[in-house]
Amino acid sequence: MTDALDQLRSMxxxxxxxxxxxxxxxxYDSGLPDIDRxxxxxxxxxxxxxxxxxxxxxSLLRMETEVVGIVAxxxxxxxxxxxxxxxxxxxxxxxxxxxxxxxxPEIDRPRMVLPSTAHAAFHKAAHYFGVEPVLVPVGPDFRxxxxxxxxxxxxxxxxxxxSAPSYAHGVVDPVTAIAAVAxxxxxxxxxxxxxxxxxxxxxxRLGRDVPAWTFAVxxxxxxSVDLHKYAYAxxxxxxxxxxxxxxxxxxxxxxxxxxxxxxxxxxxQSTKSGGPLAGAWAVLTSLGDAGYERLARDVFxxxxxxxxxxxxxxxxxxxxxxxxxxxxxxxxAGCDPFTVCxxxxxxxxxxxxxxxxxxxxxxxxxxxSAATLPHxxxxxxxxxxxxxxxxxxxxxxxDPGVAAFIADLDPRALSDDxxxxxxxxxxxxxxxxxxxxxxLPQRMAEVNAMLNLASPAMREALLVxxxxxxxxxxxx
Length: 476
What we know:
InterPro entries: GrpII_AminoAcid_Decarb (IPR050477), PyrdxlP-dep_de-COase (IPR002129), PyrdxlP-dep_Trfase (IPR015424), PyrdxlP-dep_Trfase_major (IPR015421), PyrdxlP-dep_Trfase_small (IPR015422). The chain is an alpha/beta fold.
């Protein structure tokens, strides 16, 4: 009999590494093996526990209230604050939007005001809950503009959003001014601090210049903070805090309209494993405040050293001054950003390509972890080599026929034949043809360049079709 664990280890060998500080997106590594072990053992110990009923598993209730208390203390929350542990940042954002919508049943077509840099999870919430997103352009520094956001608020607005920081560029919006205009109009203000919420308080403590964004800012009504990012907890836990219990009340769902148990949920989930919560609690209590301050010191030293190193690479520049642990790099005309990403991967580093949007160029995204600090010199050396290789190979070109084909497609009517044609042109289909296995290339620059030509709507349509094809079942 084949050992399933052996199979898992074999399959996992093809995945990006989650330790070692070389994967600069998707994962966040403290670099502390004992902390990783504690988190994993706690997840395993509670994998069978069910957070559906807190009276059946009181240890889960205790852990949740303690975790929320730790987060509340970190974010200068008032005594009235309440919170919920969710499965991740997207669920926290969904709940923030759903709660704002359901707090105003009298509004038939609710709206929310978003800077154009707000996370895509808000667009997902808009799609799910029928809340119209009103997108407001940001300034040249990629920060939201309070005046234009204020002008976008109307009688149908139920929520105003700010980021701390925005994912794409790593900058903190002017939350004080945004929250003030929201409060003046009687509208909720949510701060999406999913990626920065755990590390920014320590940045301030270390003397770094961070714009105000916590509950110390009047008018902020809710904040989301992920624990599986810079709290270095196992995937997936996030916390959604509301300033008062009254503000949170519409988040809850209850139903006695069936013959079974009365359903009562605080999140999108009903049954939910106690594992992630236990893992987060174990990591938070093991590291403690002093441990997190030390990790914050490490990650910001890494950020500063990387940012300084970028200035020595003429083809690269920072898209914006980083307020947190995220860096967005732009390239000059002679250096293709997608090729840089491929060349970094060839050298054992994963950096994330970001497409051009609304006139802003494509960028290279880095989410820096504490574990990256010992390897900054290697990272900068790899970047230098990757940039040189990208400059030497020149800009990636898309076949004019393929570019014209993409331009003529209607994203609302993308057919299987259209998609199969693009797959073949991009070299993403195995020998079996359009109905065969997708052949994922080792280098993605040409594919990314092709996507970069497409409109946002067409990118969405192409990637949805790609995901559909990629996730079709394997049959024996």
